[in-house]
């Protein structure tokens, strides 16, 4: 046995006493240098240089990695003229016998595995006393290095770990453990596919193995399972690799390993004595289910982890498909029991204190339960004290700018403008604080006279009605923007908010140097807010007036970036809501956005407006999401960011993320019906009817006399129980009390009548319309009045009438025809089916699925699939129709129990046991 003489100062590897001149083998192979310094023995130089230049069949090109066991090179295998990765452990006579044995075992174990996600071993050998093996070269990089260059999304991270878990399961089936799963041992190829390498700690799962009986601690501390850390090899098994996979997943989700101390000892102590923090605490975008999966892998007790790597892979795949996972979240008592086992002394003391704490806690809870969180603020509308009432918009502008500046601070929750405007003139600050869930409100007044302005501002603690801070500013009117910046800064100081340098700079920015232009901008903003979302025809006029005012503001100040952004937003709204659904209007929006970017390519507001433009104008969800991510970095309190994110997440099938984003939007803008409407729509699509009902109650509190929430609640009865009676009663009352409102409820009237087989009522609903777009029937699918008449005739069984109506339809289905949108082809397929043209109908239906698949658009794709199923049913393709319905019953936004029970489109399938089974699967439990 050779004895070690010292440790290499360069790399930390052991240098053995019998090494020539004390040469470190690892450094030698890393650098390729013949001599370490001028005093080295010149006699060894030719031999070493020759060996490095000509390593048998391999030419060493460059080092690509190194570790405690050796060095990995990019090399060319001469005989096959191919580039490989060559791992060399060093010179055999400089290493211990145990190291050589371990190296050989590594190579032999890895060579037995043949899997597309395991780096293949080509050759194992020795040369000039050096052990080596060659393996496939994966071009791309180690997972940790790739993640540093380009952040890996949560979903992509879960996909990678699911693939790796199946890979590890394959190795386990062949009797091999990895034992050192970490980001550095995971390589991503050029296409992003993961490959597991370095089975340097792999062991044959055999009790006879002499290596298995050793007490050597192997692994990388931050990713090491507890049983490895204590050297308990008897407990090392498949669950050990599951832990490693969980640790890598944790790093992908949070950017940090589960445990990391300053030293190896500190890391292992953390590993053994503490529980990892919830991934959701470190990254709010991680949902509860994925956090649960990750933490189950990291259980201290191997028995509490997933029973196999395959079980982990399957649970991740359930999550990726938005299906219920098998892992259960640890409850309070489970976590408490773990803590008590690790801290027995403290547990006894805690139990004694609990008896005293409970009564006290109940008293505190009673007093505090109604109090809002301590870090939120609402900037209320400032009172206009000017004699000229036209200056009301000037006062709104002061409030708008202060609110905008405060909203840049990530450390403070700031309520959006929409939710504070209804409190104009209100002074019950405690009530406002409770309603908006904030601890403070800022109120004030503005008085403008000639070239002078007086601004009063006061910060009030809503929990005590105490004035925390107040100030009066008497300045020249041109200093108003400086006043607003000063107020924002003082408020941040009073709230003890942490402000970054970038946030402070943003608070000092002036929106424009022209007060008249800013006044026009504020007026336009008020009009746009009042019209969006539009509920009446005259809202189109409000949008157009806002465009006029914004163009006037830009004419006064061509460098007014916010005005360009608002102009782009309003032009998009005119296009999106159908007031002018033309390419010309879309181009006007793009021109305004481009102008904003010319002024400042890094503008967060410009990126936000571009994201909405891509989403609304082009259904380009991926690029819209990228733009939104840029905007979100500096708009932490902008509810519009979360609203749009929820809409995009929903379209891309990330339903839990969508719900979370809509919830966050409604927290920041609690009186905004649009945010709650987005949340309600998501719950309905997910068939989460209890949550949908709770959201409707929140909507009802905003406008108690509005019948909209009642109608939405009644539609849940239709979806969940196929019960149309509550909806019928509400619609009848609406028509009796307010007949003029019927025109805005045509969609409700028509579908309800169709589901109740009251075809006369359906025809009366259509009589309210001109022969233009009838409205959305199913997830972005629109009918014209003529098509709706054909559907009625088909449902009545009037074949001749149905054929006559559908045959009169033009192929382009004006005005809604879009050859690149699946919905248009779905409707055209329905027309062909109504005409009895089976092949043409199926062709258009399949084209619709190609253009708008569920995988590309989870909402629109589900609507297209619904219509394709109708096309199949109408053309007699019973089996094909049932296949689509099975899918629709299993996916969000697909089909509800009420749809299948009531829609006449499925009459030809009724009585078929397969159809009835699908219906039963959606029946209320």
Topology:
Layout: E1 4-7, E2 14-16, H1 25-31, H2 45-53, E3 58-67, E4 70-77, E5 82-91, H3 97-111, E6 121-127, E7 130-135, E8 141-142, H4 143-149, H5 154-173, E9 176-177, E10 186-188, E11 194-196, E12 203-204, H6 226-229, H7 238-254, H8 264-273, H9 279-282, H10 288-297, H11 309-320, H12 332-342, H13 344-368, E13 376-379, E14 383-384, H14 392-406, E15 413-414, H15 417-420, H16 429-436, E16 440-449, E17 452-461, E18 466-476, H17 480-494, H18 501-508, H19 515-531, H20 539-556, H21 561-576, H22 583-599, H23 604-618, H24 621-632, H25 639-651, H26 655-668, H27 673-685, H28 689-702, H29 708-721, H30 725-737, H31 746-755, H32 759-766, E19 773-778, E20 781-784, H33 785-796, H34 799-807, H35 822-834, H36 838-851, H37 858-874, H38 878-890, H39 897-902, H40 913-921
Parallel strand pairs: 13-15, 13-16, 14-16
Antiparallel strand pairs: 1-2, 3-4, 4-5, 5-7, 6-7, 8-10, 9-12, 10-11, 16-17, 17-18, 19-20
Helix pairs in contact: 5-7, 5-11, 7-10, 10-11, 12-13, 14-17, 14-19, 19-20, 19-21, 20-21, 21-22, 21-23, 22-23, 23-24, 23-25, 24-25, 25-26, 25-27, 26-27, 27-28, 28-29, 29-30, 31-32, 32-33, 33-34, 35-36, 35-37, 36-37, 37-38, 38-40
């Amino acid at each position: 046995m050779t004895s070690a003489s010292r440790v290499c100062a360069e790399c930390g590897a052991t240098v053995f006493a019998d090494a020539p001149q004390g040469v470190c083998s690892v450094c030698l192979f890393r650098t390729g240098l013949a001599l370490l310094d001028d005093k080295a023995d010149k006699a060894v130089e030719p031999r070493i240089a020759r060996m490095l230049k000509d390593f048998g069949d391999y030419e060493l090109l460059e080092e690509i990695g190194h570790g405690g066991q050796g060095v990995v090179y990019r090399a060319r295998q001469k005989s096959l003229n191919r580039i490989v990765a060559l791992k060399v452990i060093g010179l055999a006579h400089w290493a211990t016998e145990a190291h050589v044995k371990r190296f050989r075992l590594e190579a032999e174990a890895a060579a037995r595995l043949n899997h597309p996600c395991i780096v293949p071993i080509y050759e194992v050998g020795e040369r000039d006393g050096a052990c080596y093996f060659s393996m496939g070269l994966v071009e791309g990089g180690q997972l940790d290095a790739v993640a540093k260059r380009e952040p890996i999304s949560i979903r992509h991270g879960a996909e990678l770990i699911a693939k790796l878990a199946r890979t590890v399961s394959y190795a386990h089936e062949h009797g091999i453990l990895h034992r050192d799963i970490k980001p550095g041992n995971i390589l991503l190829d050029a296409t992003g596919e993961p490959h597991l390498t370095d089975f340097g700690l792999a062991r044959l799962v055999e009790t006879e193995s002499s290596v298995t009986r050793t007490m050597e601690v192997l692994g990388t501390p931050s990713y090491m399972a507890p049983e490895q850390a204590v050297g308990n090899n008897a407990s090392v098994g498949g669950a050990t690799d599951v832990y490693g996979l969980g640790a890598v997943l944790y790093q992908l989700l949070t950017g940090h390993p589960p445990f990391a101390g300053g030293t190896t000892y500190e890391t292992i102590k953390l590993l053994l004595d503490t529980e990892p923090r919830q991934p959701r605490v470190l990254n709010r975008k991680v949902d509860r289910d994925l956090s649960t999966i990750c933490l189950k892998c990291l259980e201290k007790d191997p028995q509490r982890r997933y029973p196999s790597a395959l079980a982990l892979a399957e649970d991740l795949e359930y999550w990726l498909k938005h299906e219920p996972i098998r892992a259960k979240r640890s409850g309070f008592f489970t976590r408490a029991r773990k803590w008590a086992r690790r801290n027995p002394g403290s547990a006894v003391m805690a139990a004694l204190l609990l008896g005293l704490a409970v009564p006290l806690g109940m008293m505190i809870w009673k007093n505090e339960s109604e109090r809002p969180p301590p870090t939120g603020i609402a900037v209320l509308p400032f009172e206009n004290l000017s004699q000229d009432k036209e200056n009301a918009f000037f006062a709104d502008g002061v409030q708008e700018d202060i609110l905008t500046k405060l909203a840049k601070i990530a450390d403070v929750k700031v309520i959006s403008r929409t939710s504070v405007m209804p409190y104009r003139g209100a002074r019950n600050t405690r009530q406002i604080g409770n309603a908006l869930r904030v601890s403070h409100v800022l109120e004030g007044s503005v008085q403008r006279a000639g070239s002078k302005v007086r601004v009063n501002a006061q910060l009030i603690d809503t929990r005590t009605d105490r004035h925390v801070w107040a100030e009066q500013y008497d300045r020249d009117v041109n200093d108003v923007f400086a006043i607003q910046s000063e107020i924002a800064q003082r408020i941040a100081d009073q709230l003890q908010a942490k402000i970054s340098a970038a946030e402070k700079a943003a608070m000092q920015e002036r929106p424009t140097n022209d007060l008249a232009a800013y006044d026009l901008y504020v007026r336009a903003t008020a009009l746009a807010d009042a019209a969006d979302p539009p509920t009446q025809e005259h809202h189109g006029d409000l949008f157009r007036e806002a465009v006029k005012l914004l163009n006037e503001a830009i004419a006064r100040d061509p460098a007014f970036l916010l005005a360009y952004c608002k102009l782009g937003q309003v032009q998009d709204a005119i296009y999106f809501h159908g007031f002018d659904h033309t390419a010309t209007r879309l181009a006007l929006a793009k021109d305004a956005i481009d102008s904003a970017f010319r002024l400042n390519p890094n503008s967060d507001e410009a990126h936000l407006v571009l994201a909405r433009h891509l989403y609304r104008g082009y259904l380009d969800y991926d690029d819209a999401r990228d733009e939104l991510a840029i905007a979100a970095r500096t708009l932490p309190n902008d509810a519009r960011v979360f609203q749009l994110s929820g809409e995009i997440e929903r379209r891309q099938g990330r339903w839990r993320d969508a719900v979370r984003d809509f919830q966050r939007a409604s927290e920041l803008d609690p009186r905004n019906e649009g945010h709650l409407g987005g949340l309600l729509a998501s719950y309905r699509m997910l068939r989460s009817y209890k949550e949908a009902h709770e959201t409707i109650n929140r909507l009802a509190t905003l406008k108690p006399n509005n019948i909209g929430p009642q109608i939405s609640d009644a539609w849940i009865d239709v979806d969940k129980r196929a019960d149309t009676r509550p909806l019928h009663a509400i619609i009848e009352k609406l028509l009796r009390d307010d007949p003029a409102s019927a025109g805005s409820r045509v969609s409700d009237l028509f579908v309800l009548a169709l589901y109740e087989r009251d075809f006369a009522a359906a025809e009366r609903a259509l009589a309210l319309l001109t022969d233009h777009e009838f409205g959305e029937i199913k997830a972005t699918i629109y009918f014209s009045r003529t098509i709706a008449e054909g559907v009625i005739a088909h449902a009545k069984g009037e074949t001749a009438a149905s054929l006559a109506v559908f045959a009169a339809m033009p192929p382009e289905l004006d005005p809604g025809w879009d050859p690149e949108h699946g919905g248009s082809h779905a409707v055209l397929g329905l027309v062909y089916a109504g005409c009895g043209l089976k092949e043409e109908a199926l062709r258009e239906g399949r084209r619709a699925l190609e253009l708008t698949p569920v995988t590309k658009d989870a909402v629109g794709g589900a609507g297209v699939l619904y219509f394709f199923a109708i096309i199949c049913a109408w053309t007699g393709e019973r089996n094909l129709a049932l296949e689509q319905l099975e899918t629709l019953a299993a996916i969000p936004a697909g089909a509800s129990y009420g749809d299948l029970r009531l829609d006449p489109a499925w009459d030809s399938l009724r009585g078929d046991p397969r159809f009835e089974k699908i219906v039963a699967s959606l029946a209320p439990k």
